[in-house]
User: Fold these one by one.
Assistant:
Number 1:
Amino acid sequence: MKKLIKLTGNKTELILLVIPSKFPEIIYWGKKLSLTSTEEAQFIEYSELPVPQAFLDDEQYLTIFPLLGNGAFQLNAFSGSRGQQSWAPQFRQLTYREASSGSLEIDARDEIAGLQLTIKLELNNWDILEQEITLTNIVNDSYQLNELFISLALPAKVNEMIQFHGRWIHEFQQQRSLINQPCYLVENLKGRTSNDNPPLLICGSNGFSHQAGEVYAFHLGWSGNHAYKLSMVSDGRKLVQFGEKFLPGEMTLSSGATYTSPKLYATYSDGGLNQLSHNFHAFIRESGRFAKHKRSYRPIHINTWEAMYFEHNQEMLFKLVYKAASLGIERFVLDDGWFNGRNHERAGLGDWFVDKNKYPNGLTPLIEQVKKSGMELGLWFEPEMVNPDSELFRKHPDWVLHLAGYQQPLGRYQYVLNLAHPEAYSYIKTCMVDLLNQYDIAYIKWDMNRDLVQPGNSLGYSGVHDQVLATYRLMDELNQLFPRLEIESCASGGARVDLGILRYTNRVWTSDCNDPVERQSIQEGFSYFFPPELMGSHFGPEQAHTTNRLNTLEYRILTAFFANLGFEQNLLELTAYECTQLKTYIDLYKKYRSLIHRGDFIWLDTLDPGQKIYGVISADKTQALFAVAQNGFPVNQVSSKLMIPYLDESKNYRVKLLNSQENTGYLMKKSVPLCNGELLLSGKVIANLGIQLPIMHPQSILLIAFTSN
């Protein structure tokens, strides 16, 4: 007999139709319905579909675990075999356990195939649907698992999607398109989350935007290989499927062994992209599932990489420390080049010992100067990598991920160290623990600069899955041993940003590109899933190292405002006037830092594709900070009005422009009230009439504060 199981979150609901001897079907996922018993009966009675001619005779339900063995064909969520047997299981024996109104566990067995399956679903208080699957081999023979996908059905009205792609220095780019093909498949085989095919997807109704429309967002919390599929079924519904991507032979289950999939995180919003962001941001901030920040604020960084590269000169470093402290910077991060043999990128990785030629007295003098200046020290590591030109590799070439008989390709002049190798793991952990015990290091910039190619372990099997788990374990053990330590996830910029690594890391390096024009689009894509305080965004030099583009000081610093602010430029090259400007902006950032890192992040829809408007609003709606970024040449000669519907319409707000444009006389014969002093406007006027913006240059930003008593 059919029945309903309802999973209830804060504002949303997932309704499953339970079908005898079959996996359940999602028949509703959206805002809370609070159905009566009569309405529940109607849901059950009228959920059946017609059975078309020239197809299987029984109705084919779009279940949460569609199987080839049941006729799911291209929707198949499972692939594997025992020798040449047990390759089309059906899992007819099902039991259900409802732990609460928001969670469900489904156990399923197939005695013929010798497999047991457990599917866990939870719709939590932040309206994030969490789902994972565990497969157990229950007979004596080993089982080869090839694919295991978590599957979620969407209604037919979902017709558009945003996919995310990119490359080095160009991450989190959005590709918006109609869903008009039978199937879309995206795979990543690079051994890390990747900056070109991250496991992120947004689907929604026609014309959805930042402020409006029904949308569903999906993110697989896994830092290795992955794949996702988006399929259109015969009645127009869509099926989204995510899972880890195995290399051939990678996941073999011995008798009694289990495999648990990475967790899929998904959410529904009827308030456009902004509401789905609020769901993800609140979940990350409040759930306790992810690494907590260990200070009362997120320190402002100075990172030495673009200031000095491999030229570690102690006299220059001390001057840089003094200059950083005078500007109000709070953390000094010593980047690559501090350890033995590391004079260029072709040598030294793996030899994690302080280079006595550069630091005759170790790091103690630098740390003392950093602490004396009121800052804390961070240190760069790349624990998963080794250069061929290193003592470690010369002693232990077998510790590298490789396939015997082949020449392992170099990437960034380095190999990948097999952290699943017990001795290699112990060596790296000992090196890091010794340094963290010896020196007062508050922060690790954990880098990972290459993709994995032929990543074979000592037996010649694929080692990607085990490498990811070993990396997680090492980070976790360091966090346990050093409770005050914070870790940044960096991987050629943003190639390892996901909710798997964020269980152990407190910050991510979003991109190696500090060009603010590029950062504007990078940071938008990032912000849909991750809150601004996790996003490392740095002020770089006037001429960006990655693009050669020139940008003003104001545009560079304000682009980095809505994030965890940092500096990458050699501060010793700044003029006295530039230092004064920066000190003013740093003080302003500190004034609004708590709001930026705790408020609700908002994007406003704009008619001008070269303009982005975004900001944060406090939970009680008494305070807000917005940026109007004119990144490209304005479409219209006269700027549009700033209309913010997210403030409290019953409150009055003092509206103040916090920066002033240069050369405005060239743009306007007559300015606007916003540029001439503080305004007093009601929330209703701001939402419905709006605030007239001035005409803006390309590559310029207005920073506007809203305060209500």
Number 2:
Amino acid sequence: MALSSSVHLVLVFLTTEVTLSTGSNECVARNFGHGSVVCECNSTHCDSVGSVTLHPLGQFSSYLSSRTGSRLEAGGGAVQGNSTGEGLRLTIVPYQKYQKIRGFGGAMTDAAAINILSLSAGAQDQLLRQYFSPEGIGYSVVRVPMASCDFSTRLYTYADTPGDYNLDNFTLAPEDIKMKIPLLQRAQALSPVPLSLLASAWSAPAWMKTNGALIGKGSLKGQPGGKEHKSWAQYYIRFLEEYAKYNLTFWALTTGNEPSAGHITNYSFQALGFTPEEQRDWVALDLGPALHASSHPHTHVLILDDNRLLLPHWAKVVLSDIHAGKYIHGVAVHWYLDSLVPAEISLGVTHHLFPEYYLFGTEACSGFSPLDRGVKLGGWDRAEHYARDIIEDLNHYVVGWTDWNLALDQTGGPNWVKNFVDSPIIVDAKRDVFYKQPHFYSIAHFSKFLLEGSQRVGVLANQHTDLEYTAFIRPDGSVVLVVLNRSSTVIQFEVWDPAVGYISSTVPDHSLLTLAWNTQ
């Protein structure tokens, strides 16, 4: 049968291969017809920017990714003593100091683990290196679901025996022991820094809940301080203890994934409903005291773990209470529905009301919208969406940003409820390859360069510009400026750092640019 023109076009895209230079290794670029390219990796080859060493004082380094195919393309030049006379000037204001970076990362879901382990040993190692090794993109945070979520192949918790209030039958799942834990251990072995593990639970066991099910509208039975609430707090402690047996300790835990979802009628995923008042009282009466009395008293507690449109109200209810507040370290936010509420009204106001608590991004993914669903290989618009959100978050006091699944298959799964989405890495197990999406590099422009302890500083533009930007001083005193150009025009500009001089630069249309330079 003759191929239709559309199918023929797809086949042409599938076989298009271009080599792009990206530092120490080259990108094997493939075009699937979604506006830009992916970089294909296998067991023996994967592009990498390598370990980044900045040019000496008086020079600057640059890294460019673009819709036309650049992927962390390295460059640089000399810092000038005088202004270049460009119309647009971005001035670094080092005495305007804001939050310090905690880290960037993604989630080791059951689905991510399944996909990584579907590859050969060599390709698995390549994939983990892309995220966690010194030549990778600097991930230091890994979110770990406690038991199943929609990105699992089945529904389960660690304590499914009805009435087991003492959690005598609590046990980790095969998904933990055979998949997630070994991969986390391998990631830690590759990483030059201790990984910050972050635990989030989707649902309590069904027998603890008002609806008797893991999914749908339901919350814990009884009241905070009651036996179900105390057992649920102990469930968290047991999880920490079991993972610690494998030498995996958690930097933080959240009070539960998207508590607002558990109040939605006919909600089809795992969920556990909490109002802010219930969450406040559960932390004050149950979770906080249990954690404090456990062998993991220094594990951070992050509230909310839901969309930022719930702020600042949620934070006001929980953090204004001294009994709950003393156990809490931060507020976790998801990026869904960000367009519905300005960052200043949600993140900014929350920070100004409660500056002692940090803001941390715990989930984001492309392809969740019904209008733009699933995997889109080479979709540059998604890279821009990521970069824009990260810049906006960083400019509103967020200290870290965590992507969702570390890897998915070509359908955007597996997902037991078929809630297929996109991921920075897409695995093709049949060919034993994986594809690094444009938004993989989008995250890299931040995660590779904004090391833990980097502090955001002020940036002033001398005129209106379409550019979006954020600047940080790293612990060694070097400066990093990330610039996003979502417009269709090339924009010339200069950077003035009073400590060193002027940098002349150009950012192509639809591109992302990281500039970095030493100040001493």
Number 3:
Amino acid sequence: MVAAVAPVLGRTPTFAVFKGRHHYLCAAKIGADDGDDGLLSDMEDGWVGQRSRLGADIARVTDWANDTDTGDRDDLEQGVSEAAWRQVSTSARDCVGATNCRWGAECFAEAARGRAREADIIVTNHALLSIDLMHNRSILPDHRLLIVDEAHELADRATSAARAELSASGLDRLSRRISTVCGKEVSGRLAEIADAFGAGVAHAPDTRLVALPAAVGEALTLLDGLCSEAIATIGSVPSDAPDAMARNQSKTQLNEVRETAIRCLADAASDVRWCEGDGRGRSLVVAPLSVAGLLGEELFSERTVVATSATLTLGGEFTSVAASLGLRKEDQLAEGETARSGSGDGPPWRGIDVGSPFEYRKQGILYVAAHLPRPTASGLSDAAADELVRLVTAIGGRTLGLFSSRRAADTAAEILRDRTDLPILLQGDETLPILVKKFKEDPATCLLGVMSLWQGVDVPGDACQLVVIDRLPFPRPDEPLSQARSAAADEAGGSGFAAVSVPHAAIRLAQGVGRLIRTSDDRGVAAVLDPRLQTARSYGPFLRKTLPPLWYTTDSEKVTAALGRLGAP
């Protein structure tokens, strides 16, 4: 980019990388540490060995804090654990702001923001861009041109940034934190509400909550009242108060919890609520039904925006992704309206498909196993397993297996290990970087996994010459956001499946098939073991048009022969 801009600008441009606050050391946390295990205050329940290792990591970071000019985690050699970094950094939600912090002049995040303001080109990520949009464009420095790469993912990133959640464990931690500034009585009542809230969400389903369970609603109402009381108890905080940081952080966190409780109670048509859980407990989550309005109003305001991606065209058109960004096509302008006026349902857009440097029809084959039965269960059928073994054996490894469920990936690994002598790597057995490194180094290897492999693996050359996809990646029918968006499309007189599920599958499928051809020298086969890509008349052609234009076939014998040639020494 620097080389491309230099002739236009007349000089070599400067640039800065701008990251979220949690990427930087928090000078307040380092400066406020009392040296007596202070930074381990959130680890009361950790066992001794865990605290010891965490303490060693924190000690190394605090030593580094005296030498670093950036405070950027990426500049810390030999890194530290996520748990350790949480103790020495802060999030945008918890930060009280430089003007309210006695260490504001030493803030690494503010220094990074200052460097960004002086740069010609700023590099940031979707998450920070989304947060900037939700805060009235107050985070990123002013700019005239915005280039959004991987723009097909922006709506999902913005949705994630706009979601909020509450958990019993988070409320319990907050009750302990506010004890010193609000008193033990208020802290104890918050702990009781946390228990009641935890009991309520424990029995709630994982699907969309059209109505809140009574116990959850009661806990949220009590939470709203208690947070208001606690905020009033803290009152205004003078900047020179000795406990200013603790009081300001408590107010910020209480405000956020109260706003989330009110949002969950509001039952707004624009929001979707659901419960989800992991090993740390269950949470109540609320997220926007759509961010198209937000993006349409804020993303394109007062600047030129260029959105790019290899998967912007779905079914051969830009329409679906443009709609998710709150855009409307230029030919939808009202009579007399100019292309830059932006009135109506959203700003207008122009699209151009610049093609690809790859000769897809010569470099690769798209094979659909149309003879297989339609997938029914979430695992891998016997027929699909047989087809997988046949394909992998023909090429002798060199296979990236992309599966729609953990169960299917596990089954595939077990079958391949039992019926072949090839090294089989399974996502989860080791960290992903180690698995990908092993996959690159040994062409006889097969790497199998789930969704993160569909997007995050770049293995050019002969180590990856067969990409196998077990089924079309439609979203789960009970996934809350997809469920709500499909219902909204149905209620508006359209088709939820066509408007939500098919575009979702198209993007994921294109990303998966895109793992095959990474350079102009790559050769290989993308095999889809789901016959619906060939047989489904309503959406099969749409999905195929979304994929790279590989040579297409359903002939298993031709594919086996091609794989044999690729695998020949």
